[in-house]
Amino acid sequence: MTNPAETYEAIQDEVQTVLIGNEEIVERLTISLLTGGHVLLEGVPGIAKTTAATLFARASGLDDARIQMTPDLLPADITGTHVYHESTGEFALQRGPVFTNLVLADEINRSTPKTQSALLEAMQERQVTIEGDTLSLPSPFMVIATQNPIEMEGTFELPEAQRDRFQMKLQVGLPNRENERELLDRFNETPDLGADAIEQVVDPSDLLAAREEVVDIYVDDDIKNYILDLVAATRDHSDTTNGASPRASLAFLHTSKARAAIQSREYVIPDDVKALAKPILVHRLLLSAEAELSDITGADIVEDVVSSVEPPGSLVPEDEPASSGPVPYNK
C-alpha cells in the first residue's frame, strides 16, 4: 500500500475504532508523517492527545517511545549516554528513547529549556550527538509533543526556535455531545478499549514509498507565490513583531502537496494551502505588546492574513491534459 490516499484511509479507519471525532487530527498527523514533519498537540487534559498519538503510531506500524517530560528530566534521559560496565571495564553507549520512529514528548512544556533543546538536533537533523559521537536516527522519524494551555505553574514556554521546528500546531478540542455519547456507549461495551485494540495497517517501507509519491505532486508557480504572499503578510502585519520564517514557507509547500495526495489529486489547489494556514502559522508568530494587551491571538492574525491575501484563480497544471478542463481552484 504505497498510495498516499490509501495509506491515510487505512490509518484513519483503524484509529477510529478507538478514537472518536478527531478525524482532522489524524489527517494532519498523516500529512506530517508523509512529509517528515513534527506536530505539537495542544489541548486541555482528558481529550485524548496522548491517546491519539499512540493510536496513530500503532496503526502506522511505527516503533514509538513515550517520554514523560518533567522538570527533573535531563538531556541524557532523552538522547542517551555512555554507561560504565564493571564486567568489561569499558564504557558502552546506552541509547535513549529518541532512537525510535515516533517520539511522544508528553507535556513538553514541563521540562526545562535545556532538556527541551535536546530534541532540537533530532527534529532538524535527524541525528543526535552524544559526547562527541553523531548518530543517525531511524527513518521515518517524527516527534509528536503535547502541552496543556491552561496550566502555567511549573511550566516552561517553548523557545521560538523550537516552536519553529514543529511543522504544525494542532488544537485538540472537546468532542461534541453526539461523539461523547458514542464514546460512552463504546467504553460501556468494552471498558478496556485502548491501544491494544489497534492493529498495524501500514508497513513502514510503504510509508517511505508513499512519501516519494507526495514529492511528485505538481505545484503551480501561482500557488508558490500565494504561499509567499501569506508568509510575507504575517511579517508585515501590524500586530506582529516577528512573522513566519522561511521554514513556514517550506512547510506550506510540503504539507499542501501531501494534502493533495491523500485526496487523490496530482496537483495542489489554493484550498490545500488555506486549510493548513492556521496549524502552520499560529505558533510561529511573535505578537506585539499592543496585540497581547488587546487579547488578539495568533489565530486571529492568521484568519486576518488568509482573508486579506487573494488566492490565485483558475489554472491548468502543465502536465494536465487540455481536454480535462480547468482545475477547480476556488477563490
UniProtKB/TrEMBL annotation:
* Keywords, ordered alphabetically: ATP-binding, Nucleotide-binding
Which intervals hold domain AAA+ ATPase?
Answer: 35-176
Task: Give the matching SMART domains.
Answer: AAA (SM00382)
Q: Where is this region: Disordered?
A: 309-331
Transferase keyword on record: no
Superkingdom assignment: Archaea
Recorded hits in InterPro entries, A to Z, give:
AAA+_ATPase, ATPase_AAA-3, CbbQ/NirQ/NorQ/GpvN, ChlI/MoxR_AAA_lid, P-loop_NTPase
One GO molecular-function annotation for this sequence?
ATP binding
The record's Pfam families line, in alphabetical order, gives:
AAA_3, AAA_lid_2
Q: Does the keyword Iron apply?
A: no
Q: Which PANTHER family has this protein been placed in? A: MAGNESIUM-CHELATASE SUBUNIT CHLD, MOXR FAMILY PROTEIN
Indicate what this protein is called per its UniProt record. Answer: MoxR family ATPase
Q: What is the lineage of its organism?
A: Archaea, Methanobacteriati, Methanobacteriota, Stenosarchaea group, Halobacteria
